[in-house]
TrEMBL record, chain A:
This is Trafficking protein particle complex subunit. It comes from the Eukaryota. The keyword Disulfide bond does not apply. Belongs to the TRAPP small subunits family. BET3 subfamily. Pfam families: TRAPP. CDD domains: TRAPPC5_Trs31. Keywords: Endoplasmic reticulum, ER-Golgi transport, Golgi apparatus, Transport. GO terms for biological process: endoplasmic reticulum to Golgi vesicle-mediated transport. Residues 1-44 are annotated as: Disordered.
UniProtKB/TrEMBL annotation, chain B:
InterPro entries: Longin-like_dom_sf (IPR011012), TRAPPC (IPR007233). GO terms for biological process: endoplasmic reticulum to Golgi vesicle-mediated transport. This is Trafficking protein particle complex subunit. Part of the multisubunit transport protein particle (TRAPP) complex.
Length: 238, 137
């Protein structure tokens, strides 16, 4: 399905004088925040094309920053909204992770485009460790403005890796009540990481756990448990 | 300067946070604190209408012989009350910083219900970092 014409709610067509909204009804249209059609249009059939977010250059916002305060309020509302609709902590984390997945999916595409668009031989990571490093530095820097603090490999399990953030910016103002102590709101970050890994072809189950230490009370571990086929492929590629 | 205590009163006059720092004032029961906060809320409402030149933000400082209470009213109606020694010059700036901590650690915390008692480790930690034991040079 192709949009030759922009969808009608983005354009205002003023075809004849009967389309003009009488002043008495003007207040009812302001709710939809559409601009009132101009009375004396010369070209009566030409639709007014509005620029949308998709028309903007992608690199324009590359170094733009989002207000951390505004995001904190949005994230807080997201958690409150989700919490009203779930039955337990696991369910809450899963839903936050689903939201993060949708962010990650888009971010991987945007990030690859931004880093590889100028390159003559665009590439993508096909081995796991470079991909993990890319997540640790590039993804973290793009999403949170700083690289993550550490990468660790699990001692017990070969398929488990951890990305550690000592002070995740998105949960900086969140105090988890005692009765929910197992909750980690970084589930959103876990979802982002899961989507990026998925998009690069490393399906994994990613979860977030808070592992406080004295110096960093909000230290968080993003635990990556790779699927078997990824490990097998990595072995085969050696 | 000595900081004896901090109260946060919500816009309905309920005491949502109360914490003591330095010794020096008699400690009351939690019920007495609630009554005191409610009374202060009422007094504040009356003083804000006393001004001869129209609207006023109400009582700002109440001084006693041994201590004073500095009241900071936010535009949403929440009141922060700081009980300090008489010679304390920095109560106003401290209150501003407390308001900042409140905006960060209480309002942005999804597990805090507005207008309800504040139970947030983050807020406690920020206040501790700000006031400490209440005694400073």
């Amino acid at each position: 399905m192709a949009y030759n014409q922009p969808p009608s709610r983005f354009s205002l067509v003023s075809t004849s004088s009967t389309d003009q909204i009488p002043p008495s009804n003007a207040s009812s249209t302001t709710r939809f925040s559409l601009p009132t059609p101009s009375i004396n249009t010369g070209s009566q059939t030409k639709p007014v094309v509005r620029t949308t977010i998709y028309d903007r250059p992608l690199n324009k916002t590359r170094n733009a920053e989002v207000s951390a305060s505004a995001f904190s309020f949005l994230f807080s509302e997201m958690i409150q909204y989700t919490q009203k609709r779930v039955s337990g902590i696991e369910d809450l984390e899963r839903r936050l992770s689903t939201i993060g997945y949708r962010v990650g999916m888009r971010y991987l595409e945007l990030m690859s485009w931004r880093t590889e668009v100028a390159s003559k031989a665009p590439k993508r990571e096909i081995r796991f460790l470079p991909a993990l490093m890319m997540i640790h530095t590039q993804l973290w820097r793009a999403v949170f403005g700083k690289p993550a603090d550490a990468i660790e490999k699990s001692m017990e399990n070969d398929d488990e890796y951890m990305i550690i953030d000592n002070d995740p910016p998105i949960t900086r103002h969140i105090s988890i009540p005692k009765e929910m102590s197992s909750l980690s709101c970084s589930a959103l970050t876990a979802g982002i990481v899961e989507a990026v890994l998925d998009g690069l072809g490393f399906p994994a189950r990613v979860t977030a756990h808070s592992v406080p230490i004295d110096a960093y009370p909000s230290r968080t571990t993003i635990l990556i448990k790779l699927q078997k086929e990824v490990i097998e492929r990595e072995e085969a590629l050696k | 300067m000595v900081v004896f205590g901090l109260w946060v009163i919500n816009k309905a006059g309920g005491l949502v946070y109360q914490r003591n720092f330095a010794d020096g004032l008699a400690t009351l029961t939690s019920n007495e604190y609630l009554v005191l906060a409610g009374t202060l809320h009422g007094i504040h409402a009356i003083t804000s209408r006393l001004s001869p030149t129209g609207s006023s933000s109400g009582a700002h400082v109440i001084e006693a012989e041994t201590f004073k209470m500095t009241i900071f009213l936010t535009s949403t109606g929440t009141k922060f009350v700081l009980l300090t020694s008489l010679s304390d010059p920095s109560a106003d700036t401290t209150l501003q910083k407390i308001y900042e901590a409140y905006a960060d650690a209480v309002m942005k915390n999804p597990f805090q219900t507005p207008e309800m008692p504040i139970r947030s480790e983050g807020f406690d930690a920020r206040i501790s970092a700000l006031i400490g034991t209440g005694i400073s040079a």
